[in-house]
Amino acid sequence: MANQIKILGVLALATTLAATAAGAQQHVYPLRGQSHAKQHKDEVHCSQWARSQSGYDPAHPPVVAQAQPAPVTGSGSRARGAAAGALFGAIGGNAGAGAAVGAVAGGVTRRVRNANAAHAQNAANAQHVADLEASYYRARRACLSGRGYSVE
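and the corresponding structure tokens:
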């Protein structure tokens, strides 16, 4: 599970970087003999329109929010782990040692779950920004295509 979440995070980052690279290399070619001045005017207009449609501004991209793992304190994981450890420890003849081991195991389990949840949230945040950026470049391409340009 932890590896899957890490892989999702890496894929989201790779998607973001690929979209950035693809957008930064968007080339516009006039198909109807438009002048350089007309092309520049159309590109500016289409960029503004794409920003308004997508909510994304490539000059000021949003910062991807980074979620931090929630603390283990107050979750009850250690108490549940201690109770389970004491139960198994009593069977083995040492309830105190079993409770201590169970408390540590319960805390570690919660910490791993919290870290996995934070990784999943970070991947979702990165994917959201990548989706906004891709939407901007699709809108810009559509606008320029409608005005008689080839966009690659």
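(Above: one complete record from the training split.) Helices lie at 2-24, 36-54, 77-92, 95-146.
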